[in-house]
Amino acid sequence: MVQLLLLFIRSTREGDWLLDLSTIRSLLPWFFAYSHIHYARYFPAYWLQKSDLPKTHPDVHQQLLNGEFTVQRQSRFGFSQVACDQTIEQTCNRDTKTKGRLTDRWILSSHERAEITRECENIARKFSKTRQKKDLDMRKAFKEEEHTLSVMQTVVSMMNPFEFGRTDLVHISSGVVTSDDVTKDVLGAYGEGDLSFQQFCTERLQQGNKDMIATMPENKVKSFATMAKQVKSKQKDREIVRRSDSNLFARLVLIGNSQHVDIREMIKYSLGPVPLSLATCKGTLAKTSKSKIMHFLEGVVGPSVHCVDIPAEAAWVIDGMALLQQLQNPPSTFGLVAKHVLRMLLNFNS
């Protein structure tokens, strides 16, 4: 997936029309596999229209092959073309931005204001200085190298999926090993998405048996996120939550061997979301009265120490609720209560 995104960026930077078509075609199955409905519905029509240009508009297709679908704003560096909409944002829209309310008058005169702004910048020789490409700056290169080394170090320290001889699918950050059904769905996601894409094009775009905007079924492809979901089932008027961790111990053994962790030391600690001291036999949080813990703390705390000489720089911690409970005849308004409590606080050190 990352490689496809990089190829898509490359097709724009180099103005390669055929690479653009090929990359979009490779991305389409992923939209269908993981049920990105809006992309899956409109991208096929977009791709088919672009693919049919040699038949429908051969002259336009020839211009696109020459790289006319991108803009090259300078000729000193290669690999620097940008998309047309991005160019409009960086030039016309940027020059026409003004403070205040946007009205029809400003919209109709936006192109003239952009031209005036550009001429003023040329008169001021704002663009007279030339510089090398930003991507070639030494500071930029060092920063990119630092980021690359950081990613490599993180992958190696957590769980390196590129180790020789590894056959299981492993989550890089958590080290979780996928189950058999999740592995099957992840490895077959592209194929399932490609079949859904071809069926969509045949039924809705070519034959017209179904409307393109009709409801689309979602693919139930399992992934790493599926393994963390809770499965609920009702038995005898009660709801039981069970996690999909039937092979948890086997995964722990595999992770421990790859990370050189002692399994005996690992299983000393609780594997559940609640500590054993606060959990029931079913793994849920034990319920009890909140006042019991207060009585327990009172039993283990010794008698308070009465200080006679308190240093001037000492910090005072006063229980406000205890002060309110000491009021014998509380005032009738909140303002009077606040003044009375303030006087009590000021009299502590007197």
Describe the structure concisely for a colleague:
The chain has 350 residues and is mainly alpha-helical. It has helices at 2-14, 17-33, 37-51, 53-56, 58-65, 84-90, 92-95, 104-108, 110-123, 138-158, 180-187, 189-206, 224-227, 248-259, 263-266, 290-300, 320-326, 334-346; strands at residues 70-71, 82-83, 230-235, 238-243.
Structural features, described:
The protein is mostly helical and 350 residues long. Helices cover 53% and strands 5% of the residues. The chain has helices at 2-14, 17-33, 37-51, 53-56, 58-65, 84-90, 92-95, 104-108, 110-123, 138-158, 180-187, 189-206, 224-227, 248-259, 263-266, 290-300, 320-326, 334-346; strands spanning 70-71, 82-83, 230-235, 238-243. A hairpin with a 2-residue loop joins strand 3 (230-235) and strand 4. Helix 2 packs antiparallel against helix 3 (37-51), helix 2 packs across helix 12 and helix 3 packs across helix 12 (189-206). It is extended. The relative contact order is 0.07.
